[in-house]
Amino acid sequence: MPPTLTLYGYGKMALAIAKGLSGRFPLEITGRNPQKIEELIALHGLNASPLFPHDSPLDITDRHLLLCVKPYALSELSFSGEAKGVYSILAGVSIERLREKIPAQSYIRAMPNMAASLGSSCTALCGDESLKALASEIFAPLGTSLWLDKESKIDAATALAGSGPAYLALMAEALMDAGVREGLSREESKALTQGLFSGFADLLEDRHPALIKEEVTSPGGTTAEALALLESKGLRGILIEAVRAALLKAKKL
Ligand SMILES: NC(=O)c1ccc[n+]([C@@H]2O[C@H](COP(=O)([O-])OP(=O)(O)OC[C@H]3O[C@@H](n4cnc5c(N)ncnc54)[C@H](OP(=O)(O)O)[C@@H]3O)[C@@H](O)[C@H]2O)c1
């Protein structure tokens, strides 16, 4: 019998997780606003019970708590009792800080991304080995997962893959605009960009980016011209620095 999971929060990530878990685990949803808890369950037909925070602090004795609130909200939450497990998706919040705030036997940090809503996230996980198997099961409906051997790596995973959809969204939007600039209709440009990204995901499964680049780039051809321009403008360095900036911010949260 799978354990009951208590989801704290009803935002975008909580919804993605709740949809994935509904029907697979007994599920409770809690948060500071009872109306929003009820709306989340009713609007999305979730197989979940509301857990209204009548008392503060919330009694978490023997519960498995999935924390899906904003990182800054942690300091405002209060709990009593000792949970069996805490699973936190909060960017930049260390296990040490979780331990100070939420008494529990074991802790897991997880870093999914927005593709979780489509079951296509690659979720980075780290924490107590005793919860590794259960954590992998909990996050399985969101896509694949990757267990990190050290907590220190999770900020890098956040900067790369947690924020990653925003970097790729910026590129997709720019490419759509570029297509329109060169005479394609908005719809044509959007369809071609969508096809480019979904086909590229399959290519990347199959081969290294350097090989893909080599195969597309004929000597003296069009792609070589575009690549030379992107390199001269420093696209590669910009992306590397952007991930560093996100990582430094995650460490300050
Ligand atoms: N979005 C992503 O792509 C992504 C990826 C990886 C990890 N994360 C992490 O996921 C977490 C949630 O992000 P999200 O995108 O789902 O945000 P969101 O849609 O804005 O939802 C935020 C949630 O936090 C709750 N909250 C905020 N302040 C609170 C407080 N003081 N006390 C209690 N609850 C409070 C909100 O409840 P109210 O409506 O009552 O304020 C809501 O349930 C964040 O910690 C983020 O670091 C997000």
UniProtKB/TrEMBL annotation:
<keyword id="KW-0560">Oxidoreductase</keyword>
<keyword id="KW-0028">Amino-acid biosynthesis</keyword>
<keyword id="KW-0641">Proline biosynthesis</keyword>
<dbReference type="InterPro" id="IPR036291">
    <property type="entry name" value="NAD(P)-bd_dom_sf"/>
</dbReference>
<feature type="domain" description="Pyrroline-5-carboxylate reductase dimerisation">
    <location>
        <begin position="151"/>
        <end position="253"/>
    </location>
</feature>
<dbReference type="GO" id="GO:0005737">
    <property type="term" value="C:cytoplasm"/>
</dbReference>
<dbReference type="Pfam" id="PF14748">
    <property type="entry name" value="P5CR_dimer"/>
</dbReference>
<protein>
    <recommendedName>
        <fullName>Pyrroline-5-carboxylate reductase</fullName>
        <ecNumber>1.5.1.2</ecNumber>
    </recommendedName>
</protein>
<dbReference type="InterPro" id="IPR053790">
    <property type="entry name" value="P5CR-like_CS"/>
</dbReference>
<comment type="pathway">
    <text>Amino-acid biosynthesis; L-proline biosynthesis; L-proline from L-glutamate 5-semialdehyde: step 1/1.</text>
</comment>
<comment type="similarity">
    <text>Belongs to the pyrroline-5-carboxylate reductase family.</text>
</comment>
<keyword id="KW-0521">NADP</keyword>
<dbReference type="GO" id="GO:0004735">
    <property type="term" value="F:pyrroline-5-carboxylate reductase activity"/>
</dbReference>
<dbReference type="InterPro" id="IPR000304">
    <property type="entry name" value="Pyrroline-COOH_reductase"/>
</dbReference>
<dbReference type="GO" id="GO:0055129">
    <property type="term" value="P:L-proline biosynthetic process"/>
</dbReference>
<dbReference type="InterPro" id="IPR029036">
    <property type="entry name" value="P5CR_dimer"/>
</dbReference>
<dbReference type="InterPro" id="IPR008927">
    <property type="entry name" value="6-PGluconate_DH-like_C_sf"/>
</dbReference>
<keyword id="KW-0963">Cytoplasm</keyword>
<comment type="function">
    <text>Catalyzes the reduction of 1-pyrroline-5-carboxylate (PCA) to L-proline.</text>
</comment>
